[in-house]
Design brief:
This is DNA-binding transcriptional LysR family regulator. This protein is of the alpha/beta class. The chain has 10 helices and 11 strands. It is rod-shaped, with a radius of gyration of 32 Å.
Amino acid sequence: MDVRQLSYFLEVAEQASFSKAGHNLHLSQPTLSKMVKSLEEELDVLLFDRSTRRIHLTDAGEVVQAHAQIIMKALENLRFALTDVKEMKKGKFTLGLPPVIGASFFPKIIAGFHKQYPQITIQLVEEGGKLIEQSLLEGSIDLGVTVLPVDEELFEVVPLVQRELMLVLNAKHPLAESSQISLLDLQKESFILFRKGFALHDRVREACVRNGFEPNVTYESTQWDMISEMVAADLGISLLPETICKKLDASQISAIRMNEPKVHWNLAIIWRKHQYLSHASRGWIRFVRDSFEPEYPKSQLNPDL
């Protein structure tokens, strides 16, 4: 038994005539009769009483009609639901977002996406970049935003923005008035970093090691505002994204652009290779990509999204 058989049967039942039903369905009467007969044989019941000039449903036919109408309505609802998903009217996905990245760029983007697609739900998971990568590989989240680089053998990557980290220190720090500061000038300083598991922790440490020293990390935090408060209290120095530095109290904290070598902070949306992406997820990627397009023209990005 298939959907086509049921739809043909329902049309015959509604018209009470094989010839009229065949005309509506653009089928010959013998073909339609054969399809209904096949359904009767499969169900092992007689669906129509053909003993009179005008056919009518048997008791079994009435039962089949009632259930067939339910089935056809359910299929219609399924098609409508799938259309809603394809047209981005409904959907959901889980997004891994490090707190510092979320605070820097995404409140307005999420608001814009919600305005355009109000029935799509974004479940946010706030974790460091390394934990986001792990969660993607485990399949517990659908998409993540993190700091590059990542292993491109494991992840698909859509680059978003290119930024630098800036030195932040207490406004009364001896280096606060300097205009020329390199990483080597900081080798005796106490560092306040994001905790291990955050990509920014690794970016800063790796940059220091490349310049010949292991940073003296005295405090770690998961929140940029906590780090800035500790810098304001003269507990150490840090390197933070320039978008965050714009929010700091300049009377307490100095933010200084580093000389070469700069510590880069390049962001991307990532997901596990060969992973199925829902229509909602693909729509989000396109929306975010277009929001940052001035930095990364579409010609450089994944054309399949």
